[in-house]
Design a protein that fits this description.
2 copies of one chain form a homodimer. Chain A is α/β, with parallel strands linked by helices. Chain A has helices at 21-36, 53-57, 62-69, 86-99, 119-126, 132-138, 142-157, 161-175, 189-194, 255-268, 285-294, 303-308, 326-330, 337-350; strands at residues 4-10, 45-49, 77-81, 105-112, 197-199, 202-203, 213-220, 231-240, 277-279, 320-321, 362-369, 374-382. The first copy, chain A, has 14 helices and 12 strands. In chain A, a hairpin with a 2-residue loop joins strand 5 (197-199) and strand 6 (202-203). The interface between A and B is large, with 62 and 62 residues.
């Protein structure tokens, strides 16, 4: 069963003090349905990815509330949680519902409202993506964890702080073209290295921001008949990995990413070298370096140097990574990020992106949760 | 693709002060794998149903933690939430993973730890299954909601308080045989009517208790080769419905239940009259009356009288409802309940139940979330 992306949408990412988790999801879902030319009554199932709607806002049954808000019939409405990978997981289940024949039209939405809560509450909430009994008990935070990842990559491969900072420079340069991104100003390596220390060696600009927002995709078994190129889901895979640092053998690689991408390449029948455009999970600058290596986009240990040399930007490399600006520019409303990635890759394959990768025919999205607890890898192709 | 229940297990339901949400899930999951004769490395995907692990215990990425705890490989591990229907939703996705060919062996687990938290926190947590912006803001609780349902059924159909109480009497009588149930003492109609008022007309014994526990099922595409009868999943359907009282047209029926059961009967190719045994969602006594009518087991408006006359108990009716004792006796660790129902129906179809429905060949489980926000209906058959 072939499955297509018929439409995508996202809210602006940033601060939405006026909107709660459900309202953000409904806004993105409605826009995706409109973009796909699909009526609510034609939706057969809905998946909602979210991380902190219960912890911060005490609202469960989120998927049912979103379904009612969209005016959907009594279709299955399911909330899924995998920390920062929640939206990727939502998409995988929308695709699965189509593949198994339970749905002709499935809607996947990711949503998160973070900035309405006090920062200490958000920090505590984000730590729910760690094992509370081990890492959580030590007071480890996510910047702290990725600081350790950066130190490990430096120690093992000689990756420099300037190389890590160059990820931020590239993604901010890409992000300046993205009208939905939270940050649209360029920064220099010196700006990054001179920004406020967060968790050594990571500085403020090495970290994706706390944000609100939602994103959505409509997937269908019927090939879209729009004027634009149809976009097909060639693979949408998910894997799990160690959820606590005490269980991680090697801090310079996330097994969930390698496992999900190996499955995805096999299902799509392609290799990493076939891709022209990738959106990956740069929650911190160093994460993009690790992700590029785990996904097989750049040789192990060499991603820092290669990114600094422009291997993954416009007009230089054969591949563009995070043309949207990534999490570092676009923002990171945790449960929404995976579908914002799909929004960008779909636009790139249709040839309608704000900053277009010329001739893009194969694209990939990579969404990572927790300390590598979950990952999804989705490969889309121009059909 | 045929899908079978290869093994099930549950912890005792009640108080587990020693165990957290993950540990309960691992205990039930491990026992289900052992019962199925399946090694952890042969599991292809795991789904974990849970409601309040984040709100009460600040632990996300639950599915990945459970997967690691069970020693599973890097397989997809997904947490799903649909309030009290979370475990039914987990099962549906395990079954779907088999049907689509992504898994030969899938594990579904439901888990909840409630009694370790102060009661006011639990009460607030349970209210997350309502729409916080509407019902939640009024201070409505779940006993309050089901009290309104009982009043509506009384007004519309003349159902009496004695009839509603007779549900409790029946389920407590069934539950005395269930070694894993929280309550194993019989009660009389007078006991129920004389117990402490909770939300008019519901009394203490009309309400399922706050409990801890976990339950699990292993589903496979390979027909189990055990000595016992193989149990096949004939349908596993899910629907959504109004999530807030202001959106409910008729308090005497839950559209999510009717929708899910209509789909399930159609997929299984049976009618309600073909069933010998049903586990349904008696979170409150009156819920069993409404459920029996919504599922088409008893005529609309007549379930109270019929249950009082023994239509759904051993040796009297053609059908036994809640032979395990239901939520009223077994207890209701919210995210686990749907799979405890599957544990009972599987035992009934294998002929190994603590109190056996003789000759049971077709059984059904019905799991309801929130104010009818979600429902799942699963039909199992002796294969």
């Amino acid at each position: 069963m072939n499955v297509y992306v018929a439409g995508t949408a996202m809210t602006t990412f940033g601060r939405h003090p006026e909107a709660n988790t459900v309202e953000l999801a409904v806004e993105a879902g409605r826009a995706a349905l409109e973009e796909a030319g699909v009526q609510p009554e034609d939706v057969d199932t809905v998946y909602v990815g979210n991380f902190l709607g219960q912890s911060l806002h005490h609202q469960g049954v989120l998927a049912s509330l979103v379904a009612r808000g969209l005016g959907l019939p009594f279709v299955p409405a399911t909330a899924v949680e995998g920390a920062c990978a929640s939206a990727g997981i939502a998409l995988r289940h929308a695709v699965m519902s189509c593949r198994v024949g339970d749905a002709r039209v499935a809607l996947a939405i990711g949503t998160e409202q973070l900035t309405a809560s006090p920062v200490p509450e958000v920090t505590r909430g984000l730590a729910e993506a760690m094992d509370r009994e081990t890492d959580g008990a030590t007071g480890l935070t996510f910047p702290g964890f990725f600081g350790l990842v950066a130190q490990a990559h430096e120690t093992r491969y000689g990756t420099t702080r300037e190389q890590t900072a160059s990820v931020v420079v590239k993604n901010r340069r890409h992000g300046r073209h993205n009208p939905l991104a939270m940050f649209r100003e360029e920064v220099t390596v010196d700006d990054v290295l001179g920004s406020r220390p967060i968790a050594d060696p990571l500085r403020l600009y090495d970290c994706s921001p706390i944000s609100d927002g939602a994103a959505a995709a409509v997937v269908t078994v019927d090939r879209p008949t729009t004027a634009q190129s149809a976009v097909e889901v060639l693979a949408c895979e998910q894997a799990s990995g160690p959820a606590s640092i005490s269980d991680i053998e090697d801090l310079t690689s996330f097994p969930a990413t390698t496992s999900a991408s190996t499955c995805a390449y096999a299902r799509a029948g392609i290799t990493a070298a076939d891709l022209q455009v990738v959106e990956l999970h740069d929650c911190f600058s160093v994460a993009e370096i690790v992700d590029c290596e785990d996904l097989g986009l750049l040789p192990r240990g060499e991603a820092g140097a290669a990114i600094t040399d422009g291997a993954t930007t416009f007009d230089v490399g054969k591949l563009v990574v995070n043309p949207s600006g990534g999490l570092l520019s676009r923002g990171h409303p945790v449960g929404a990020t995976g579908l914002a990635q799909i929004h960008e890759i779909t636009a790139q394959l249709r040839g309608t992106a704000a900053q277009q990768v010329e001739g893009a025919e194969l694209g990939m999205a990579h969404n990572l949760g927790g300390c590598g607890a979950s990952a999804t890898v989705t490969i889309l192709g121009r059909a």
